[in-house]
Each structure stands twice: as C-alpha cells, then as structure tokens.
Amino acid sequence: MSNQPPASFEQQPTKNGEPVFDAPWQAKAFAMTVKLNESGIFTWTEWADRLSKHIAEFETHSKISNSDNYYTLWQSALESLVDEKTGSTKESND
Amino acid sequence: MSEHEEHQHHHAPPSEIEERVKKLEALLIDKKLVDPLSLDLLVDTYQNRVGPRNGAAVVARAWSDPDYRKRLLEDATSAIIEMGYAGRQGEHLVCVENTPKVHNMVVCTLCSCYPWPVLGLPPTWYKATSYRSRAVSEPRSVLKEFGTELHPDVEVRVWDSTAEVRYLVLPMQPAGTESYSVEQLASLVKRDAMIGVTEVKVN
After folding, report:
1. B-chain residues within 8 Å CB-CB of A4?
2. pLDDT digits (tens, 9 = 90+) for A33-91
3. Which residues of chain B have a CB within 8 Å of the CB of A18?
4. Residue A71 lies in a domain
5. What is the largest CA-CA distance in chain A?
6. Which domains does chain B have, with CATH numbers?
7. Which of A35, B12, B122, B201 could form a disulfide with B126 if both were Cys (CB 3.0 to 4.6 A apart)?
8. DSSP string for residues in B139-164
9. Owning domain of residue A52
C-alpha cells in the first residue's frame, strides 16, 4: 500500500529527504491549529499542553508512535480544545 | 485482476481521520474562525518556504562573522530576526554552541516544540516516542544511532524545548573550511546538525 501523495506533496523541498506532511489532512490540521492560535482562540501554551496530554495518554498504552498517529493525536487534541473554547465540535458526532 | 479493481486507491473513500479533519474545517469556516485561503497559504509557507536553509544561513554567518556569532549566542531571537527570519514559534529562541568540550542536542520531551523560523517543521523522528524519551535517558546511544561518536570526555547537554523556549544548535565549523564563502559554508549545514544529533562534515 504505497499511499501516493498528490503531486503538490511530492514536489515539496524535501530538505533532508523527508516531506513535511505525509498527507494533505495532516497539513490541514496543522494549519487550522496555527490559525486558531493566531486569532486568539487559544494560546500556544494551551495548545502544547493539550497536545502533550493526548500524546502522553496514548503513550501509556502504546509504545509505538509514527507520524500518522502523531497527526491523529494532533487532530484529537485540536478537536478537544476547539470544543472547550467554542463549545461546538461534538454536537453532530454520532 | 478483479482484486486490482477493488484497490483503486485514487477512488478510495476518505478515511475516518480525513472526514474528521474535513468536518472540523467546515465547522471553523462556518463560524468564520478560519479562512480557507489563509489555511492554504499557511500550508504553502511551511511546505515550500520555511526550512532548514534558514538555519544553515544563520550558522554559516555565525561561523564567518564573530560579531554576529556573539549576538546570536547572546540573543538568538533578535539575531535571527536580523537575518529576516521572523515568524511563528520564533518568539524566544536560544542558540547553544557546540565546542570541543560540549555537545548540545535538542528534544521536546512532551510534544514537538521546535524552532520553526530557522528549521521549518520537525522531522518524523523528532516527534517519535523513542527519540523523545531516549534523548534524555540515553543521549549518547541516540547520537551513535545518528552516526555521531563523541569522545567520552565531551559533555552532552540535552535541551528540552517548550512552547516558550526553542533551541538552535550552533555546530562546530569543520576543519579546513576557513576559506569557504558563507554560501559554501551554508551548504554544509544540515538540519540534523542544528538539532544536535549530527556534526557538520565536509562533503
């Protein structure tokens, strides 16, 4: 299963041979976080604390981490912080 | 061959995580908390514009300009802005200098804090559990895995980045490069050396 990234992702300056993001959704999760911080929804310290908490919880029951579950944890942390700050991500979750 | 058709990746439905990201984005756009164009611009910035070349230019200048080196070590935030690399996560940067006696390496034990204006976004291994825990508990073994063998007398200092303070390692200039131009020097400086897991070598 080589999940081929789209062309724009392949053309990244790979610096030391690695792409910055493995998939477009990771880039999007990252960008939303930075923008919400910049618009004052949360401070970067609040964000780092929340992300750390999600990583720590994950790592108590799993020793494996890779960039895919890293950004999955990132997204979970973002959802929980947005929910807390705006009271509104979960309402339509099944 | 029918199997082949079942595994048409290009037409695969979005995964659960893709759906979650999409849903959050739609919600934030709907609430006018983010602007879709600004998200694309930001992704473009970190994919294509900001990266370790910035840090390499800072290091090369520090090697060739003693006054700049002094300013960088005293107040990295200002010295890096002076080079034109202002930006997010660069509010409090500290530059730590490698010497024949001290080798510095950087980690973020809790998440992935990193000096974006000079190095861009962190590599996968920097975010991995094993690096984040072992950089502190057994730094010399980690360095060895990156091919960095230090003399036993060299002290290893490990710096734990936070949301408030981020570190840039100023590697040692390799011997024999005294006559190099700043550009030639910059081309030698790789990302991993500025995280402090490798040393700078002449190609």
Report:
1. 9
2. 999 999 999 999 999 999 999 999 888 877 666 555 889 999 999 999 999 998 865 55
3. 123-124
4. yes
5. 42
6. 7-48 (no CATH), 51-195 (3.90.330.10)
7. B122
8. HHHHHHHTT----TTSEEEEEE--SS
9. 20-84
